[in-house]
């Protein structure tokens, strides 16, 4: 092959390859930052199924805090989609990753309580342990929320919540602020309902 023929063949090859290379650069995968923005936008637009897929992509593509926080948002999407059992597991996976974001940790524990209560009311009593363990949570927000949820589940479930309900009552009386912020709207009725349930259970046992 002559030098001119080789140069002509090389030019033809470059003519074919360069457009494909440019196209592949234009179609380069989104950065993690772009994926995060897209996932958040989808969630706050209420497109939860798409958002969950987007957060799963963030989880797969990133490392460190972004990967861990993606687990939280995946669980939030499942909760919004009404997939309560799946969301319960996903919040557990987030907490098992030992996240450093304390507000998200507290929100996850609170969400797990709400989900477990819904599932318990739907007949899935195996989730009672999530509720009863939350009564000893170090966060007052989680502990108080758990007590108020447990108080609506009948005398047997309500009994372990009584010490926390009394704690709520004391805070409401003496006004340290936390109980008022979390509970004022519903506390009185729920505490009364729980106490009546415990008293009814005691009468039945007697």
Terminal CA distance:
106 Å
What overall form do the CA principal axes indicate? elongated
User: Which blocks of ≥5 consecutive residues have pLDDT under 50?
Assistant: 3-7, 9-28
Number of strands: 0
How large, in whole angstroms, is the Cα Rg? 27 Å
Query: SS-based structural class?
Result: mainly alpha
Helix content: over 70%
DSSP strand content:
under 5%
The average pLDDT score comes to 80
Question: Order of SSEs, N→C?
Answer: HHHHHHHHHHHH
Major beta sheet summary: none
Number of helical segments?
12
Oligomer: single chain
Write structural notes for this entry.
The protein has 206 residues and is an all-alpha fold. The protein is built from twelve helices and no strands. The longest helix has 24 residues. The N terminus is likely disordered.
Offer a concise description of the structure.
Helix content is 78%, strand content 0%.
SSE layout and pairing:
Blueprint lengths: L2 H24 L5 H13 L3 H14 L3 H16 L3 H13 L5 H20 L6 H7 L5 H11 L4 H4 L3 H13 L3 H6 L3 H19 L1
Helix pairs in contact: 2-3, 3-4, 4-5, 5-6, 6-7, 6-8, 8-10, 10-12
Throw out a few tags for this protein.
disordered N terminus; elongated; mainly alpha; 12 helices; 206 residues; 78% helix
């Amino acid at each position: 092959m002559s030098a001119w023929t080789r140069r002509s063949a090389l030019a033809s090859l470059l003519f074919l390859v360069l457009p494909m290379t440019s196209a592949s650069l234009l179609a380069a995968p989104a950065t993690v930052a772009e994926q995060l923005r897209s996932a958040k936008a989808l969630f706050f637009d209420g497109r939860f199924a798409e958002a969950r897929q987007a957060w799963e992509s963030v989880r797969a593509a990133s490392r460190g805090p972004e990967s861990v926080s993606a687990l939280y948002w995946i669980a939030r999407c499942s909760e919004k989609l009404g997939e309560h059992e799946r969301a319960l597991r996903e919040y557990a996976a987030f907490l098992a990753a030992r996240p450093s974001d304390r507000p998200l940790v507290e929100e996850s524990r609170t969400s797990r309580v709400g989900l477990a209560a819904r599932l318990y009311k739907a007949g899935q009593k195996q989730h009672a342990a999530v509720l009863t363990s939350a009564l000893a949570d170090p966060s007052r927000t989680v502990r108080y929320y758990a007590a108020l949820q447990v108080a609506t589940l009948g005398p047997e479930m309500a009994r372990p919540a009584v010490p926390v309900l009394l704690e709520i009552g004391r805070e409401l009386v003496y006004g340290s602020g936390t109980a008022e912020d979390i509970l004022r709207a519903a506390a009185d009725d729920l505490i009364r309902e729980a106490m009546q349930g415990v008293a009814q259970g005691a009468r039945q046992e007697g």
